[in-house]
Write a structure and sequence with these properties.
67 residues, mainly alpha, 3 helices
Length: 67
């Protein structure tokens, strides 16, 4: 897979999970209480990991490369 395709996939995952966070923030409080564990343990970590990977992924790859 090309680097551009990987970046595009990460970007779309980041955007979609970001929309879930926006819906959580602006949604009615009575309905969002039911989904708080999803946001804590699934949506927010995925959002943070994809953002960090797009920002500093080249540094992480360099640390773990065999060369």
């Amino acid at each position: 897979m090309s680097p551009n395709a990987k970046q595009s996939i990460l970007r779309w995952i980041h955007i979609i999970f970001g929309l879930f966070i926006v819906a959580y923030i602006y949604g009615p409080p009575a309905e969002t209480v039911k989904y708080i564990s999803f946001f804590r343990y699934i949506y927010l970590p995925v959002l943070l990991l994809t953002g960090l990977w797009m920002w500093k992924g080249h540094v992480i790859r360099r640390l773990f490369s065999k060369e």
